[in-house]
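Lay summary. Proteins are chains of building blocks that fold into shapes, and those shapes determine what they do. In this project we predict the shape from the chain. Here is one chain we studied, written as its sequence of building blocks.
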Amino acid sequence: MRTLHAAPASFIVPPAHHLVSSTPTPRGALPSAEATIQSHARFPLSPRVARRRRCARAALPSAGTAAATVDDAKRDVLIALSQIIDPDFGTDIVSCGFVKDLEISEALEEVSFRLELTTPACPVKDMFEEKANEVVAALPWVKKVNVTMSAQPAQPVYAGDLPEGLQKISNIIAVSSCKGGVGKSTVAVNLAYTLAGMGARVGIFDADVFGPSLPTMVSPENRLLVVNPESKSILPTEYLGVKLVSFGFAGQGRAIMRGPMVSGVINQLLTTTDWGELDYLVIDMPPGTGDIHLTLCQVAPLTAAVIVTTPQKLAFIDVAKGVRMFSKLKVPCVAVVENMCYFDADEKRYYPFGQGSGAQVVQQFGIPHLFDLPIRPTLSASGDTGIPEVVADPQGDVAKTFQNLGVCVVQQCAKIRQQVSTAVSYDRSIRAIRVKVPDSEEEFLLHPATVRRNDRSAQSVDEWTGEQKVQYGDIPEDIEPEEIRPMGNYAVSITWPDGFSQIAPYDQLDMLERLVDVPRPATPAVVSS
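And here is the predicted shape, written in a compact code that computers can read:
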């Protein structure tokens, strides 16, 4: 865990626009921290959160009331902090587990605690700090409040065996278009430096071996990758604090090789690089939907994808193929960037390539956010000079659009991680496995023995004959899982008492016989995951 530090001055980016206002919000704009938190007052909370808030208000000490013991004081502080709702999860920050290291002075006058957020790039971290100070300072016995902000250690939401280089990366974002020349590399680089400006630890992986763009778009002092002689790992180069890896930095220029060799090079560059701890690794995907893309999706547990297109119909046709590919691989597409949309002249806005390609992607595939980028000579020139536009002009209109895109990516990745981490859990109080597949409102219950008996791996089913190796009676009726952990965006890994590790895809769990009329426990459920 590390304490958050202010971003360098060259990285300061303008705040996101407000959505909750009296005027319509431009397309692509996202809510500011304050507006996002306040917006939850306009919509109904879940019953559990609503009950917690009512109890919190009822339990708040009245004016002049002092805490009797340290335990009472801690309870008062937690009740006060439970009034703060995380806008992404819809749950209070106490239930989210953000409150750490709560300490009360012996005189019951000074309160110290740490708020550990899911990412240092959290767009509402300043608002959280301000609100936490406010609600705790309002307690009648509190004279001083010390709030420290931090972020969770970088780690993937993945249960499988990852290459060592990827084990300390929280989120991997694919920037894809499936068509060349639409500005995908421009979006990838500027998104990465926007996330860095928000306080995150970021890396960029240029996956285009045939035509690497990264060496032209950034200007690192060291333009060659170095191999650590002891660990044999690749050490990435850096520019303005962002780690960079590209075949163009390998001293080979552009590759001339066959497909299988390219996949091997991509795999080696990505997995043997010592990325260290990263909050976001942005992958600049090459055009197409071939072997390289499948290799990347299989090797790296992609958190989400950002789709780049242009207004032309031809661009939409190719982009649609990419969206379908990510859908099959269970990688959610969180945003569409429509590049080269328009230019402003003579106090008018012109659309030289037409309109509607980006909106068509959003409507047809249900991708939640659309961002427009204008035709700007400075945006094109920044890619040639080696200084990203968001660094060269952090207060400009283009930087504001990328700031909104960055906020979107941070929020959507946090939601995805939360959904995946809580999708499947074991409720010991009713001896049932709870399943709520990401992007679904339905929750259902499964008997543990049913899940174990329906394993379809080679250890349970003969691959040649399809004959079931594990018989019904081999699995005891009272079997309970020891551990359930997410495995990418498509499955969970379930460890059983006999040491067997079962991979259970969400699609398979959805097809199993469900429990109905399960008696509810009198006491709150104890959930293990």
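What the prediction tells us: The two ends are 22 Å apart (CA to CA).
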